[in-house]
TrEMBL record:
CDD domains: Pyrin_ASC-like. The gene is Nlrp3. PROSITE patterns: DAPIN (PS50824), NACHT (PS50837). Residues 177-380 form the NACHT domain. Coiled coil: none annotated. One of its GO terms (biological process) is innate immune response. It comes from the Eukaryota. This is NLRP3 protein.
């Protein structure tokens, strides 16, 4: 028989307790019930259901248990039989808690990323990497923002907290009822909330709460009139919920409002208009204010995630709240994220070493969305079966991809001219870079015409600085490197008539920027590197198609002339023109355009670098340029060290009678020797003096000697080669393809 569950048993008892008139009234009301997608009970079946057990069985067959119980509860309420309705609800509550947890698991356990294939969902538990978060009273925040420091992300451990401790008593024994989780766009707020929901379902987090309701503020912003009960209903899978049980045990309820800034309205409702009845429908703003001001469900707990820009508005509504800021990935978490993303230790190791070798990229990885961006791009390189250590996607491209992601965060009703906004934002960034400035006052933001909240909050953090008894709001870019990125963009974005005619606007003189860098402003290095990357034709095309901003290629000629002439003053008039600064190779690698590199390198005949610790990224930039440089005649590296590889690389050509050894495959000199041996190379002189060559390095050199058609002079000047190293060099010298005349 259908309807043998405990809830049906209670329903049967309720019907049996009715008078004959009451039973008939229940049947009459039941005949007018119409359900969406379900079967309605035929009229003749209702007539034949003369006994409560027959009617319960009929309802079970037609509606199913959940719908039948919801319908019965509704009918009992219409009949003013609230005690019977509550009795059935109480029985359902026992089952409902488990059903709600199952619903939360279905909603939050898996998610879809932007770049996921159709039907591909990822597990939160397999991808989520713990974030560094810190707790501080927001009014005491001040000084240099974390985003202004390239070591940003290393939290002050004295204030570090975890998700597990957010609702635990503090040192004074006080348990916060309201926690505000603050983070810039891309810092992982929503992902952290998703992980919290999963851990609550699994019984690993917030077990003091019977119910945790997660409300997406983007969806909520579409509502007009709502009650607190409506907010609960939006999170629940069934039409009828045990409202009495939930609301009567409000201390067991946690509301999570994710993305509070999306609501976009000022919270300034007069207190006498606030609600105290959770069932009372009022304008959305009033209902939310009632929760925040605790005139309704005062014993419940709140967790609010928001961007810093919304804090000033939110602070006016809260009392005794606890502020927690997401600082991003720690150094260990960055590496862990790469391994979780790739699910393959070898690929993760290679990708992480690539990123770790680029100081700018590695520093940006403190922002979770930047780690995702870099992994996504490198994964595409793996898919194309490219050598990741020769990846053509330089730092600027990663920034462009990140900017594209930010644009997807814009509200659907945002109609502002992005090009106009970016011009003003980039002008602010460039002005700050020139003045060594990372904090901007509110009047500067308004003076620049940047007071567009839905766009501004994507790029800048808002913070409060305490000055005596006053408290001022200041703004900073999410990360210093992002400020440098937008400063570079300032010089290449197309101007409009308004900008051209503004006499107070910062001059877009690329030559002034380059000359200042050459003379004394070495802190402009990354800005100039980004400048080269932005005028790459692919970057220009991507910016126009995917982001909607126009980049002018006019600066290319300035950059070309500067690189062609900047080293002339460094070489003696009687010497051949040599490149003596490593940054030249980084600029060309960032541009990543072979013809441009060839036009620059064609003006020089040699490389002369001293006392440099060559990181993996340095070697990649150097190798890229050497491969485009047919006119390279000599190369000198004096007292330079090489970053040691930690992972097996593809072996170079092996000499006859030799077997590749693990040390050879790990030699950091292999990529350089392979680049020097590229087809068309005219290298004649190679000097590697006091560079700490290993046995594997000697074998790589031996291979180069055996195959290079023009290499005539090799100077090592290193007495640490050892007998085995010398033997490996001699093996190369004995090969018929060796044309070496001088070995020192």
């Amino acid at each position: 028989m259908v309807g043998e569950g405990s809830a049906f048993t209670v329903l049967l008892g309720a019907l049996e307790g009715l008078t004959l008139e009451g039973f008939q009234e229940f049947k009459t009301k039941l005949s007018h019930v119409h359900t969406n997608g379900g079967w309605n009970i035929p009229e003749d079946a209702l007539v034949e259901a003369m006994h409560p057990s027959t009617l319960v069985n009929c309802m079970g067959k037609s509606y199913g248990e959940d719908a039948a119980m919801d319908i019965a509860i509704g009918l009992f309420e219409e009949m003013n039989q609230r005690d019977l309705a509550e009795k059935i609800l109480d029985e359902k509550v026992k089952e409902y808690k488990q059903k709600y947890r199952e619903h939360v698991a279905r909603e939050f356990l898996r998610y879809k990323e932007v770049n996921s294939c159709l039907g591909e969902n990822l597990s939160v538990s397999s991808r989520y990497t713990a974030l560094t978060i810190a707790k501080k009273p927001w009014s005491q925040r001040g000084g240099k923002p974390e985003g202004a420091d390239v070591s940003w992300g290393c939290a002050d451990t004295t204030s570090a907290v975890t998700a597990q401790t957010l609702f635990k008593p503090d040192e004074d024994g006080q348990t916060p009822q309201t926690v505000v989780l603050v983070g810039a766009p891309g810092m992982g707020k929503t992902m952290m909330v998703r992980k919290m929901m999963v851990e609550w379902v699994e019984g690993a987090l917030y077990m003091q709460f019977n119910y945790v309701f997660c409300i997406d503020c983007k969806e909520l912003s579409l509502s007009k009139q709502v009650s607190v009960l409506d907010l609960v209903s939006k999170c629940c899978p069934h039409q009828r919920i045990p409202a009495g049980s939930i609301l009567d045990n409000q201390e067991k309820v946690l509301f999570i409002f994710d993305g509070f800034e999306a609501l976009g309205f000022p919270l300034a409702q007069p207190k006498d208009e606030l609600s105290s009845d959770p069932r009372e429908a009022k304008p959305l703003e009033t209902t939310l204010m009632s929760l925040l001001k605790r005139t309704v469900l005062p014993a419940s707990s709140l967790l609010i995630t928001t961007r810093p820009m919304a804090l000033q508005n939110l602070r006016r509504c809260l009392e005794g709240e606890c502020y927690v800021e997401i600082l991003g990935f720690s150094a260990a978490a960055r590496e862990e994220y790469f391994h979780r993303y790739f699910k393959n230790d070898n690929k993760a190791d290679v990708a992480f070493r690539f990123t770790r070798g680029n100081e700018a990229l590695y520093s940006l990885c403190v922002i979770p969305i930047m780690s995702w961006t870099i992994c996504t791009i490198l994964e595409q390189e793996f898919y194309k079966k490219n050598n990741i250590l020769e990846c053509s996607k330089a730092t600027t491209w990663m920034g462009m991809f990140y900017l594209s992601w930010l644009m997807k965060c814009r509200g659907s009703d945002a109609q502002q001219d992005l090009q106009q906004f970016l011009r003003k934002l980039c002008s602010l960034a460039a002005d700050g870079i020139w003045k060594h400035k990372v904090l901007f006052e509110e009047k500067e933001i308004k003076g620049c015409g940047l007071d567009w909240p839905d766009l501004l909050s994507l790029f800048l953090n808002e913070k409060s600085l305490k000055k005596g008894v006053d408290q001022d709001n200041v703004y900073s870019f999410t990360h210093l490197h992002l400020q440098e990125y937008f400063a570079a963009m300032f010089y290449v974005l197309d101007d409009d008539e308004e900008t051209v005619s503004d006499p107070e606007a910062l001059a877009k003189n690329v030559n002034t920027l380059l000359e200042s860098y050459s003379k004394s402003r070495k802190d402009l290095n990354l800005t100039i590197r980004f400048l080269f990357g932005l005028v790459n034709p692919k970057s220009i095309e991507y910016a126009g198609e995917r982001i909607g901003c126009r980049i002018s290629p006019r600066a290319r000629e300035n950059l070309l002339r500067w690189l062609q002439t900047r080293h002339r003053g460094l070489s003696h008039p009687s010497e051949a023109l040599m490149i003596k600064e490593l940054d030249t190779f980084h600029f060309l690698f960032e541009m990543n355009e072979k013809s441009f590199a060839q036009n620059v390198l064609g003006c020089f005949t040699g490389i002369d670098l001293h006392d440099i610790k060559l990181t993996l990224y340095d070697q990649m930039a150097l190798c890229f340029c050497i491969k485009q440089w047919d006119g390279l005649d000599s190369m000198t590296l004096r007292s330079c060290s090489f970053h040691q590889q930690q992972c097996r690389e593809e072996p170079a050509t092996v000499l006859p009678g030799q077997h590749p050894r693990q040390e050879e495959l790990r030699s950091p000199l292999h990529p350089l020797c392979q680049a020097l041996g590229h087809a068309g190379s005219s290298l004649r002189n190679l000097r590697l003096q006091w560079c700490g060559l290993t046995e594997g390095g000697c074998e790589a050199l031996g291979t180069l000697l055996a195959t290079h058609p023009s290499l005539a002079c090799l100077e090592l000047g290193d007495r640490a080669l050892g007998d085995s190293g010398v033997q490996l060099l001699c093996t190369g010298l004995r090969q018929p393809g060796c044309h070496l005349h001088i070995l020192r």
